[in-house]
Write a structure and sequence with these properties.
Elements: E1 3-6, H1 12-21, E2 25-29, H2 40-47, E3 53-59, H3 63-73, E4 77-81, H4 85-94, E5 98-103, E6 117-120, H5 138-141, E7 147-149, H6 158-165, E8 169-172, E9 177-179, E10 182-183, H7 185-197
Parallel strand pairs: 1-2, 1-8, 2-3, 3-4, 4-5, 5-6, 6-7, 7-8
Antiparallel strand pairs: 9-10
Helix pairs in contact: 1-7, 3-4
């Protein structure tokens, strides 16, 4: 059964929709440039009392600071970007947290060498991920090991993605939205159901 993360959550009702739909993890974006930005305090509120993994997305935060944030907030996972991404991923993995390690999908990528679990997304010139665009899935199809497929996934294409790539997990955000940061609960439920039943 495919592991599923719903990311870019900013509202309690959207978190509840993801959890009630069967998501294994929910993600909160603490990147100021993102239209889905939430503060650490807000992310902590949204994550409180959730049985699924709660993953914080960070940018250029020092590893020690990230570990302190995770301990203070009670969140269970990290998805680090930027100049400290590798060191943060290694430190968080060593401390026992769930680590989603963002990677550019390339023919040379070896997911087994990534700290935690590799997350393959579609970057652009202005965004680290969350672009809503699909990359060439043939780059992921050949990979050996556990990884999460992201980038332009939604209810309309997740079945094809899982059947073709056979990832360990999938992650979606922008394609499940009514507007940036506000989820369509029907699409969230549909995405999770299709991903898990494929």
């Amino acid at each position: 059964m495919t592991w599923v993360k719903v990311c870019g959550l900013t509202q309690e009702a959207d978190v509840a929709a993801a959890i009630n739909g069967g998501a294994d993890a929910v993600g909160f974006v603490n990147v100021p440039s993102s239209p889905r930005f939430v503060s650490i305090e807000r992310a902590s509120q949204l994550a409180k009392g959730i049985s699924a993994h709660t993953v914080l997305l960070t940018l250029d935060v020092e590893p020690a600071q990230v570990l302190q944030i995770l301990e203070d907030s009670g969140m269970t996972g990290i998805q680090p970007y930027g100049i400290n991404a590798g060191a943060t991923a290694r430190a968080a993995a060593a401390a026992g947290y769930l680590v989603l390690s963002p990677q550019r999908p390339t023919p040379e990528l070896k997911v087994a060498d990534c700290p935690g679990i590799a997350l393959l997304d579609t970057p652009s010139q202005t965004a680290l991920g969350g672009t809503g665009r699909v990359f060439d899935w043939s780059l992921a199809k050949r990979l050996a090991g556990r990884f999460v497929l992201a980038g332009g996934l939604g209810p309309d294409n997740v079945v094809t993605a899982v059947e073709m790539v056979r990832p360990w997990g999938v992650d979606a955000s922008s394609r499940l939205e009514l507007s940036p940061g506000k989820k369509d609960h029907g699409m969230v439920a549909d995405f999770i159901t299709k991903a898990k039943n494929t």
